[in-house]
Design a protein that fits this description.
Blueprint lengths: L4 E5 L5 E6 H7 L3 E9 L5 E6 L10 E2 L2 E3 L7 H13 L5 E12 L5 E12 L11 E7 L1 H10 L6 H15 L1
Parallel strand pairs: 3-8
Antiparallel strand pairs: 1-2, 3-4, 3-6, 4-5, 4-9, 7-8
Length: about 170
């Protein structure tokens, strides 16, 4: 696992400090994160399967890209940086919403994030970093919602929250 400091925040996304990534997840401290959701021009969502060797949620399907901004790094800039690093492309992104969640993970770590969600559209070549991404695919929301209903354990906990929010907004 690569180690670096991430941004600790309060409930209002105000920075209250920094902490080493593994220590933050061991203690379940609230920290800033982001998730990128990419659609293609057919309305299909780009999913990635996290590399199996990731320090948590390895082998699970999730949104197109997710990570933490570095201390002093703007979250929007970090989302673009990480999209290029993980998936090998960049595209226009729009801020969508944020949410806070806390969940215990399979290996004793705790994910407690204030997660900023960005949405974009991309139709070009995807060249993922094999150290980060085991697989990827575009899937329609209908098929995805059916899969999530039948096999929620195949998806990351934060992605399930994001998908529910996207479904709610699309149905209203």
């Amino acid at each position: 696992m690569n180690t670096h400091d991430i941004i600790l925040v309060d409930q209002h996304d105000q920075q209250v400090g920094t902490g080493e990534k593994l220590e933050v997840h061991q203690n379940g401290w609230l920290h800033r994160a982001f998730s990128v959701v990419i659609f293609n021009n057919e309305g299909k969502m780009l999913l990635q399967k996290r590399a199996y060797k990731k320090y948590h949620c390895g082998g699970l399907w999730t949104n197109s890209c997710c990570s933490h901004p570095f201390p002093g790094e703007d979250t929007f800039v970090a989302a673009h940086r990480r999209l290029k690093e993980e998936m090998g492309f960049d595209c226009e992104l729009t801020y969508h919403h944020h949410f806070i969640y806390k969940v215990k993970l399979e290996n004793g770590l705790v994910e407690h994030e204030l997660d900023h969600v960005f949405i974009g559209e991309y139709n070009g070549l995807i060249v993922p970093d094999k150290d980060e991404v085991a697989d990827f695919r575009f899937v329609s929301l209908d098929v995805l919602n059916e899969e999530v209903h039948k096999y929620p354990q195949r998806f990351t906990p934060w992605f399930l929250i994001i998908l529910k929010r996207i479904n709610t907004l699309l149905s209203s």
